[in-house]
Every structure is written in structure tokens, then in C-alpha cells.
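Input:
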Amino acid sequence: MLAEHFPALLVVTPLVAAPLIVVVRSARAGWAMALAACLAAVLMAAQLLARVAASGPVSYAIGSWPPPWGIEYRVDAASALVALLVSAIGTASVVYARRSAAAEIGGERLYLFYALMMLCLAGLLGMVVTGDAFNLFVFLEISSLSTYVLVALGRDRRALTASFQYLILGTVGATFYVMGVGILYLATGTLNLADLAVRLPQAADPRAATVAIAFITAGLGLKLAMFPLHAWLPGAYAHAPSAVSAFLAGTATKVAIYALARIWFSVYGADALLRDIPVAPVLAALSVAAAFIASGAAIVQDDLKRMLAYSSVGQVGYITLGLSLATEPGVAAAIAHVVNHGVTKSALFMLAGAMALRLGGTRFSDLAGVGRTMPVITFAFVIGGLSLIGVPGTAGFVTKWALAGAAIRAGQPVFAAVVLLSSLLAVAYIWRFVECAYFREPPAGAPAPGEAPASMTGTALALTAAVVAMGLHGAPVLGAAGRAAAALMGGAR
Amino acid sequence: MRTDVILRVVAKLLIPFALMFALYVQFHGDFGPGGGFQAGVIVAAAVIFYGVIYGLPAARRAVPDRAVELMVAAGVLLYAGVGVAGILLGGNYLDYFVLASDPVHGQHRGIFWVEAGVAITVSGVMLKVFYLFAGRGRDPEDEA
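Output:
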């Protein structure tokens, strides 16, 4: 009985948790409430994923106004999978944040951090479940505004600059998106995504559709850190508190990718994209540039978190490369990489945060000899790094293999070569960490051997274990991603 | 502005009417221009006006920080609570039709409470922003 309301409750639970935390004004209680809301979201997302797989998409009319007049929440195989990823990473980040945020943010306003995490989670989940183009914008802004503040909570003043830069660029991105939606609304008179898919081909002026997709692609491209619109990401991820970096790396860009795929394939459709509007080749070119240039930039960073951030831009390139193929295997590989890379990068940011907590920073000079002072964390980081490279037995391999296969099947073997060659750059930046962690002497005055607090280490190791599990047994994620791609590309949903 | 008698007297005269007008904008929002957002802004403007004329500490005594923070949260909770009430009464989230036996009356009731929630949060946020900016870099007690 309650289960039929899960599409709405998935968003409402964290949305209500945020003001409740503000009322309670206690970091301890706030943490517990945030964790409870996250766990509830995970359970609801898992139930929705199972239900969607069994009996098809779920539609929910907010306020009982039937779509397309009212706002429709619509959960299909794609949105349920991304919702599960977001809520699971959110849960892990909240568990991790109890010690990490207490150390990095602290103070009597710590409870506001948990309220912001919940607002951000509500916004991201809302973007995923909504079936309404304008409602998506509202949730995009809810998640973005809370993200700006979360980034600004970082330890030093550079976090403020990074946050401000993200605020400016993120607002530009959101504005471009809403301009695109406005044009679509003018051309078709509807905001419901499924209804748009029906009415767009009948629109009087086909140029409106072209202009709208350009605006929307550029706007969401900014939010998903599509090369060369990624300038905000390295600073934001490097200077945000560790728990926030871990949360955002696995969710924020991934949800923007989902939104882009939703509009590309569910509203416009793969045929129209390839035939009428040349966005796919443009995206392919930018993806290749991201895979090489951003991964190359990762090699020369002198800060571990900044290196991971540039690596994220490169990895987003693989995902958008899969989308640009505009074939079902390509989109499936992209969605699978959203999941696998999301988990991998969250794990890596958590491990980096654990190092930062004990060593006081994540510059490579701080990390010299960390393999001796924090052996478990360092080893887990290397495993996560192998997943970034795409070594067999890790999650990264499964999806890079699927992506290369999809490229070959789409008649684009050159993209398979791109995936392989750019992975060599990942070898270089991960090796830099290995060299620094294992082959350098710890600096004088380094802390005695020992690990970070158990809650942080445990969460990070659990995610690392998930990376290996998804690498050894890739079928569940690939299967779910395949169903997600079929749902995304099923034309009018 | 302790000594500006005219300002102080005019403020005292105007503020009750501003608050009254806010209520009008709030409750007339169903039928004409207005609604919770505008009413919330007017309420906050009245308090900010009071703060500008009588000093920040006086405004903080009238509407304490703790109350402002509660308002920020309470409005959202009220809004979301109306949505949950819809579920509990057998409808969908934010379903106003089921809030009363007559669906049209239910719509009135639903939007009444939702707009009340909007007004509370908007005026809370406006005041929070004012307090934060006005209170920056000064001891709360040394206001003349």
C-alpha cells in the first residue's frame, strides 16, 4: 500500500529529513536522521528497481493531477538504477562523514552539514525520478545550491574560491538547461518528457528542437563536467570536505549524465539525434579529448584529490563516448560505467580523505611513504586505481570492455582504441601514487603507523570490496544497465 | 538612529500596516496577485525595517535567531506535511482533493497550508540573510 508512493517518498524522505535536522540542532541526532533517511531511500530504490524489472515503468501523479497536465514521477529501469546508486553512495558518505566531517568541519554548526547533505540527496533523487522537464530543473537547482555550500565547507579558503567558481558555472549550466526547456515548451506546449517525445516531431518549427537540444546539451554538459566545460570540477572536488568529494564524485555528475541521456534518447530519440542534429559526433570528439587531455592533466597534478578529480573528467569522457554511439550497447556500457565508476571514485575519494585525516593533506609530498604508515588504506587505494585503469578483476575493466565492444559493434573501432590507449594514461597517474606511497621514505615527523577511524576505513573498504565484486561478477550491473538502456531508448516512454 | 524621532515614529506607524498588508497578500493570493512568497517577503521587510530604524539587537529581541532558524525549517515541514497528509488520507503526495469531503474545498485547504508554509520559510530565510549580513564583523551588543 505504501509501496505505491515510493516514487514520491524517495524524494520526500530526505527532503523532510533536512528541516527536521535543522529543528533538532544536534550533529549526533542529525547524523542518525540522515543515515535513516539514506537507508530508507536505498530500500525504496531497491524495491522500485525490482518492481520495474518485474512489471515495467511506474508512473506517479503528484497531487493526483494526471500527466501530462500535472507533474509526473516516472521510474523505469534507468531511473531506478541511478536512484539506487545515488542513495547507496549517499548512505556510504553519511556513514563516512560522522568522523570525517567532525574532523574537517566541526563546530556547533555541524548539524547544518547533514541538513545540506539531505537537501542535495533529495535534489539528486528528484532529478532521477521526475518525468517533467521543468521539475528536473527545480531539483537540479536544489541539488546544485546545496552542493555549492557543501563545497564551501572545505578546510581552507581555497574551498570558497572553488565553490564560487562552481556557483557561477553551475548557474550558467542550469540557465542553459532551462532556456532549452523553455524553447521546447514554446514549440510543443508541454513539459512532460513522455509527452514531449510524442509532440516534438510534430512541432511546426524543427529549428526549435535543434536550438533546444543545443542549449540542453551545453547546460547539462556543464553540470556533468563534459570536456571542456569541466573547469569547475577539479577545484570543487579537491577542496570540498572528503565526505562531500566522495558523495559528489559518485552522484552529482552521474545524475547529470542520466538527465542528458534521458532527454537525448527518451525525448529526441537516437534516430533523430543521428539523422537531423549532429550532437552525437560533437560529443564523441569532446569525449575523446576528455579521455586524453583530462587524463593527461591528472598525471601532472601534485595533489591526490586533484588528480582524482581530473581522472573523473577523463572517465566521464568514457561515459559520454558510450552515449555518443547512440546504440543500445553503447548506452548500456555508458550506464554501467556510471555505476562502476561512481562506486570506484567514491571509494577512492574516501580513501584519500582517510589519508588526509591522518597526514594533514593529500599533496604527494604529504603522502610519501604512506604505504608504510597506512598499509590497508594504501592497498585499497591501489585496487581502486586498478579499476580506474581497467585491470581485469575490477569494476573498471567490466565496463571498459563493454564500451570497447559496443564501439566495435557500432562500426567505430577507433573508439575502442581510444579507450585502450587513454587507459595507459591512467596507468601513469596511478603509478605516480604507487611510487610515492611505497618507494619513498616517510618524511620526518610522519605519524606512527595506524589507520583512520574504523567508520571511515570500514566504509571505504566496503566500497573497494564492491569494486572488486563488481569486477569479478559484472553480470548484475551489466544486466541492469542493459535494461536501463532499453528503457531509455524505448522512444516515447 | 536613536535620535531620529520622525523616522522612529513613522516606522512605528507603518510596521503594523505592513504586517497587515502581508496578511492580505497572503490570504488574497487564492483569488488575485499575491501568495506565500510575496507575503513572506513583506513580513520580513517589516522586521528588517524595524531593525534598520531601531537597531539589529532590537530586531533580534523581537524575532530571535533561534525563531528565525525554526521558521526556515518549519515552513518546509508544513509544506511537506500537507503532501504527506494527502498520502495518509488515501490520495497521492500533495493530493489536495482528499483533504476535505468536497474536492474543491480540499484544494482550498491544501493550498492554504502550502502557502502558509511558503510564507514562513521565505520570511525566515530573508531574516536569516539580513541577520547574517547585518551582524557580520560586529559584536551583537555594541549596536548604537
